[in-house]
Amino acid sequence: MSVMKVAIVHELLTRRGGAERIARIFADMFPEAPVYTLLYNEKKLGEWIPKERVRTAKLPVSRFPFPAFIRYNHHLHLRHFPKAVEAWDFSEFDLVLSSSSAFVHGIITNGNPKHICYIHSPARYLWDSMHEVVQRASQGPLGWLKRQWLERTFHALRIWDAESADRPDALIANSKEVQRRIECYWRHGSNVLYPPIEDFWMEKDVQKKKKDFYLIVSTLTPYKCIDRAIGACNSLKVPLKIIGEGCDRRRLQKMAGPTVEFLGYQSNEAVRDLYSQAKAVLFPAKDDFGLVPVEAMACGAPVIALGEGGALETVQDGETGFFFHEPTADALEETMHQTRAISIDPAHCRAHAKRFGRDRFEKSIRETIDMQCVGCT
Questions:
Q1: Theoretical Cys-Cys bridge with 138: which of 24, 147, 214, 310, CB 3.0 to 4.6 Å?
Q2: pLDDT tens digits for 255-275?
Q3: Which residue ranges form the domains of the chain, and what is each CATH number?
Q4: How far is CA 108 from the centre of its chain?
Q5: Which parts of the chain fold into alpha helices (H)?
Q6: Closest CA relative to residue 284, chosen from 303, 300, 262
Q7: How far is 74 from 157, CA to CA, in rounded Å?
Q8: What is the mean pLDDT of residues 124-129?
Q9: Who's near 311: CB < 8 A, 6+ residues apart?
Q10: CB of 305 closer than 8 Å to CB of 311
Q11: At residue 199, what are phi and psi to the nearest 5 degrees?
Q12: C-alpha span between 167 and 163 (Å, rounded)
């Protein structure tokens, strides 16, 4: 592998999230590899992946000096993304390693080079969340017009999305939940490899005595369902600290009671400390995998999560946290109330999280490359 010429691909390098962490790991594994992306925000991702390594797509947005809220708003450029990823020429490479949440599984390599694609999920707004996205867009001025545009756009993109799923030489799903979606939407098999955590291991012993506050660490977007946590904490009148930024912050602040505190972006060191101090970390939405519960457990924090999706594969009910089973604020509130007096061993949480280490992840990726790339060099 040391002499192979590798390219790395990730859809959007515009924010720091779980998918972008995988792209960063791929970039660290192959430090000479260029990184292809549809949109790149150097201010947000330059520290992880420097500009000198990045090759951006040719999109209409790149022809004009649009302000940031237009340039990096991927919803405005959806129609152009399939054509853009298909236009990339990888013929000079031996291997393409991609990290896909929507489009880059559709790059064209024709088996030379080999293409190994790590799937965070088939695009949720095209499939399982499509009706919710369209319904939200239908509200407000010109809602009917936005609805018509989205319905036509999503229909065309779904056809392309499913048809292009056969293009990679190997598909790797980031959880059994995502593996199920790949089978359901794409009618395609895949192997499961859980994503790793690396920045949130406590270097000191985890704190056994917790403070009386709950914690959210998340991008503030509607599908994260943070309003459920706010509603539960408002009713219980218990402290809730929220770390993160996003388009939903203004709405969430309006509904927050006096015990809810918005902390915005925080450094990894600050997040680790708050994880270790929190009574529990709340994970109120169904997610593909969800790094936050694993990060929390690595710092000795129990997790209260919706009992669906990737959380079922990471949280041990009654041992490293608790589940609530209805996607409502009332159900979360009831579980929080019932478990406030129950103590979870922080050391057990941390030991469980070690299943998701980076060494294991990189070893599995390299084994997949070995199997796919015999004779590539």
A1: 147
A2: 999 999 999 989 888 999 999
A3: 6-196+357-372 (3.40.50), 214-356 (3.40.50.2000)
A4: 24
A5: 18-29, 42-45, 68-71, 81-87, 130-137, 143-163, 176-181, 226-236, 249-255, 268-277, 291-298, 329-339, 346-353, 358-372
A6: 303
A7: 14
A8: 87
A9: 283, 286, 287, 290, 293, 303, 305, 323
A10: yes
A11: -100, 5
A12: 9
CA–CA separation, 263 and 243 (whole Å): 5
Which residue type sits at 68?
Answer: A
pLDDT of residue 59: 74
- Residue 72: what residue type? Y
Instruction: Give the span between the Cα atoms of 275 and 289, in whole angstroms.
Output: 19
Position 1 scores a pLDDT of: 45
Residue 29: how many CB atoms within 10 A of its CB?
17
pLDDT at 112: 86
| Distance from C-alpha of 36 to C-alpha of 38, rounded to nearest angstrom | 7
pLDDT in tens, 14-51: 888 888 999 999 999 999 999 999 999 998 899 999 99
* Number of residues assigned to the chain: 377
Q: Which residues pair with 100 in a beta bridge?
A: 119
Vertex 41 angle, CA 10 and 101, to 5°: 25
Confidence at 297, pLDDT banded by 50, 70, 90: very high
